[in-house]
Structure formats: structure tokens, C-alpha cells
Specification:
Elements: E1 3-9, E2 14-15, E3 21-22, E4 26-32, E5 42-46, E6 72-73, E7 78-79, E8 84-88, H1 119-133, E9 140-144, H2 146-157, E10 164-168, H3 176-191, H4 208-222, H5 225-231, H6 256-269, H7 274-286, H8 289-292, H9 297-300, E11 307-313, H10 321-334, E12 338-343, H11 357-367
Parallel strand pairs: 5-8, 5-9, 6-7, 9-10, 10-11, 11-12
Antiparallel strand pairs: 1-4, 2-3, 4-8
Helix pairs in contact: 1-2, 3-4, 3-7, 4-6
Length: 368
């Protein structure tokens, strides 16, 4: 399967919820599969917090396979022999779309001068991309986690732009617990001396230690206790000298789960920008689709004619099934056609990224 990497520069300023505008916005994206002559087969995949446009192609920095490579491709659930798949890097991120590391009008990186963004702002960027591609209506918009927030935002604010909306392991609002976990990560970044109030671009050192800790804290929320216990339990690390257990407090990873988290943190710093992490987590925390529409979630979907499908996982404690049910009830009240399923999987929030055959069947059935 051939992926096409592109970037679109918006001709017009992008208005933001803050009242500010972004000029000269770049949207980096990838496409897979051929677009039909009538442009009726386009699927937009919205990525999660730490994702990017490389949904089914090797990542240019890490060399690892795309984050949803198991789902997207010829003959797969999202069949690129049938569909034209688009995945774009959201504004505020760091893989080619305009974000804090981008140059402002004075030729210097925005850093913390970058305007505050919201999920709806990200969605405006995606809609501007669709306009640039001449795609009036998507066959389906799909998103998991933060990607599901974008899919819901598109359905609520641009109801004519998607015929189907598939939301996986997501929510219509961030809880106090979600906000609290994000704040721990942000404080870890800002406490790193190398953060320099966000002005670390061009310096020898970036706030990698703080970003790694932020990633470690967040990654715990993506997993389940059952999954962690099965994978690591209380097993100790094997040391090169053949011993196990503590040798020096606070430096060596004594338990396997510690080593795993450190690996996740250090790997993340290779491909992500600390300031982008600050901005995107804040955008997620601000997200409250009901508040955007007068306080009643059903009103957010009043103008939608799309078909909806929502999927949750029984081991996901970050966005538990109750959050999906809340959205389903609002869709029912709005008279929107919606299907909903809670799937059993041991992987926690990350279940939508991993091998859960039941999810494949649900998605394939909805798309077809």
C-alpha cells in the first residue's frame, strides 16, 4: 500500500475559539487509496493525543509501523481498495501541522506565544483541509480517544460533512480526574529546567525528562490493572550480573513495570514536542460539547443527519462506558440513528489500538 504524504497551506486565516486567528496554517496529512470520481468514498481518521498522520505507514522518526496499521490497508477493516483514507496532524501538534514549534510572523518559533486551541479549533482545521481537497461530505469520520472528540465535534459543528460517525473509547467532556492526570504531566514538563518557559527551541537541551514523566503518567491511564498484572505482575528486572532487586534506590528500575514505563517515556521524547503536549492536553481538558451548545448535549446533535456508532471497552477506566452511554442518550434524545456496544478486552483504554477482533467486526459492519 502506497501512502501519500502532503501538506496543505490554508489560503485564509483560521479563526479560533479564543477570538484570535492563525495565519498561514499548514495542515500535514497522509492519504491512502484512490478517491472516487464522485468523492463519495472518503474516510477521515482523527488521531489521539500522541498520534499523528502516520496511521498506516512507517513513522519517519521512529521507523515503527503506523499507529493503526492493523486497521488500515488493502482488505483490512478500513479497506483502502475501497476507501480513500485521510489522516491529518492536528493544529497544535508537531509533525508538520502548525503548532508551537512553527515559526511566527517574526521568524521565531511561537513557543508559548502560540494561541490557546480547542478541540473545535482542531476540527475547523480538518474541515478546512476537506475544503481544500474538494470533499463536501465524508463517507465516515472515525476517531478513538481524542480522535473521537474531534469526530463528535465535527458531527456537532459541521453536521453536513459526514454521513457516518464512528467514535471509539471517547467522551463528550473531560472529567475532573482526566484534567488532574493531565495537570500532573504538564507540571512535570514545566518543572524541567530545560523547559525555559517554553523557549527551548534551538537550544542544546529540550525538556525531555519532564516530557518523559508526563508520558509515563499518562500511559498508566491507558492501561488496565488486569493488563499490567498479566504483563508484569511484581516481577523484578533481570540484571546483567544475574541478580534481581534493588541495588541503588531511585536510579535502577527494580520492577519490570518500571522499566516498561521508562522505555515508553524515553521513546516518546524522540517524536513529540513538549509545548505541543501542553497545548493539546489543555485543549482536551477544555472539551465540553454540551457547554458549547447551551448546556444540553442533545442540542449539539440537533441538526445532524448522520448515522452514529459508539464503542466502549469494559476495562477502560479513563473513558469508561458511562461516558459513551451519556453520548448515546443525547443522540437518542436528538433523534439521531445510533448503535452502541461495550466490548470486553483486557487492555484498558488502549484496547482500540490493539488486537480486539470484536472491534474489527463492529467497525466493518458499520462501514459497510
Amino acid at each position: 500500500m502506497t501512502a501519500t504524504s502532503k501538506s496543505l497551506r490554508l489560503n485564509e486565516d483560521l479563526p479560533l475559539d479564543s477570538g484570535q486567528v492563525l495565519s498561514g496554517v499548514e495542515i500535514a496529512y497522509e492519504t491512502y487509496g484512490e478517491l472516487a470520481a464522485d468523492k463519495s468514498n472518503a474516510i477521515l481518521i482523527c488521531h489521539a493525543l500522541t498520534g499523528d498522520q502516520y496511521v498506516a505507514s512507517n513513522h519517519p522518526i521512529t521507523g515503527k509501523p503506523g499507529w493503526w496499521e492493523r486497521m488500515v490497508g488493502p482488505g483490512k477493516v478500513i479497506d483502502t481498495d475501497r476507501f480513500h483514507v485521510i489522516c491529518a496532524n492536528v493544529i497544535g501538534s508537531c509533525m508538520g501541522s502548525t503548532g508551537p514549534a512553527s515559526l511566527a510572523s517574526d521568524g521565531q518559533p511561537y513557543a508559548m506565544r502560540f494561541p490557546v486551541i480547542t478541540i473545535r479549533d482542531m476540527t475547523r482545521g480538518l474541515v478546512a483541509l476537506l475544503d481544500g481537497l474538494g470533499i463536501a461530505q465524508l463517507h465516515t469520520v472515525i476517531g478513538g480517544s481524542m480522535g473521537g472528540m474531534q469526530a463528535l465535534s465535527l458531527a456537532a459543528n459541521f453536521p453536513e460533512r459526514a454521513a457516518r460517525v464512528l467514535v471509539i473509547a471517547s467522551t463528550a467532556r473531560h472529567s475532573a480526574q482526566n484534567i488532574a492526570f493531565h495537570e500532573v504531566g504538564r507540571q512535570a514538563i514545566m518543572a524541567d529546567p530545560n523547559w525555559r518557559d517554553g523557549n527551548y527551541y534551538g537550544e542544546d537541551c529540550a525538556p525531555d525528562n519532564g516530557l518523559a514523566v508526563a508520558r509515563m503518567a499518562a500511559h498508566i491511564t491507558y492501561l488496565s490493572e488486569e493488563g499490567l498484572t498479566e504483563k508484569f505482575g511484581r516481577r523484578l528486572q533481570d540484571r546483567p550480573d544475574g541478580t534481581k532487586g534493588a541495588k541503588s534506590f531511585g536510579f535502577d528500575a527494580d520492577f519490570q513495570v518500571e522499566s516498561y514505563l521508562r522505555y515508553q517515556g524515553s521513546g516518546f521524547t524522540q517524536r513529540f514536542d513538549a509545548n505541543s503536549y501542553l497545548y493539546i492536553t489543555r485543549a482536551m481538558d477544555y472539551f465540553d460539547l454540551a457547554e458549547e451548545h447551551g448546556g444540553l448535549l442533545a442540542d449539539a446533535f440537533a441538526g445532524s443527519k448522520a448515522r452514529f456508532c459508539l464503542v466502549s471497552f469494559d476495562s477502560d477506566w479513563l473513558y469508561p462506558t458511562a461516558e459513551s452511554r451519556h453520548i448515546v442518550h443525547a443522540l437518542n434524545a436528538a433523534g439521531a440513528p445510533v448503535s452502541f456496544v461495550e466490548l470486553s478486552a483486557p487492555f484498558g483504554h488502549d484496547s482500540f489500538l490493539l488486537d480486539v477482533p470484536a472491534l474489527d467486526r463492529v467497525m466493518k459492519g458499520f462501514l459497510e
